[in-house]
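ugh ok fine here u go
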Amino acid sequence: MESSSSNGSHVLGIFVVLVVFLASSRPASSQNQQASFAVNAGGAAASKPSSGDAATGSFGEFITENVQHYVLSERKYAGKAKALDAEMSAAEAGAVRYVVSPDGKGKFRTIADAVKAVPEKNKKRVILDIRPGTYKEKLLIPYTKPFITFVGNPRSPPTITWDDTAATRGKDGGPVGTVGSATVAVESDYFVASGVVFKNHAPMAAPGQKGGQAVALRVFGSKAAFYNCTIDGGQDTLYDHKGLHYFKNCIIKGSVDFIFGFGRSLYEDCTIVSVTKQVAVLTAQQRSKSIADAIDTGFSFLRCKITGVGQIYLGRAWGDSSRVVYSYTTMGKEVVPVGWDGWNIQKPKHSGIYYGEYKCSGPGALSSKRIGWSLVLSDVQAKPFTGTHFVYGDSWIQPPPKSS
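structure:
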């Protein structure tokens, strides 16, 4: 993703706004995408329609479909026992554990060696008990090695760190790009991590800095769960790339678009931290297909905390059916009143962007001042997003194993 920045101003109604432009091209496209952020310089935002007014036509049908999808899922689960899927159940029954320790007191000194030792087409849960320390490693968990677990001691967690950026030159001499910048890339299914720090320690990129994207963790595999982990970086920290993902009690730090991707993910009891004194954007969820297909992906934040420095946007639309919902979330004063940005979507109100809030609190939870096309959800509309059912978690989410 490449970026550039410029400043301008314009009048919106009777309000004066400061506009900050950040142009970005994602790894999914070679075209530059430009975003504008309107920061209120004095006074409230334009009056906000009710969610009923905003949900008209095909978009209204999409909201209804979300609710119906939830109701059908609940009926399905009620009609049979909530059991683990067959592959996962068999893998857990045959679990094995290896110790990784840089001092040589384990089976492996490096995490990379431990991952290499996992057989191709693995069918057993392989638990890597990673002892405290800093592991300077760039890791890929290939799609051929499912059921791998990283476990650390949450009181003294191991840190996996690297410093690639999108501009870093790869083996072919060209830049690795945003995808290639990840410290840890998980492409396999059924991955679990508990009590681990994933870090990209590249210098903090200035807003708009070309090639400054620096991913700490990329998750492409499905049915991946993260407990008590820290995901630490700047621009594009967490590439929630694709699949069903669950984050519980995690800390996620970053600046611009630092939770982004196509995933369908639940963030529960997580702390989301802006680390830039300038403009931060928490999410850039992508959904550029039709509204009808948008139900497959989205980010839901449940009982989270948003804090940090600078001016924080809850999200901007990377695609015309981008979907993000915050429920029971505590929002710090740094969250800007308008809350959301349409990025390069010309008519956000009619595009299928689903940005909603439900019973949030804190000085930044100013639902009455939000941009007019975001939603304040009703109890019924919020239900699909406020539990592990959002990621079909009854069949695959389990408590994490403890470190030995």
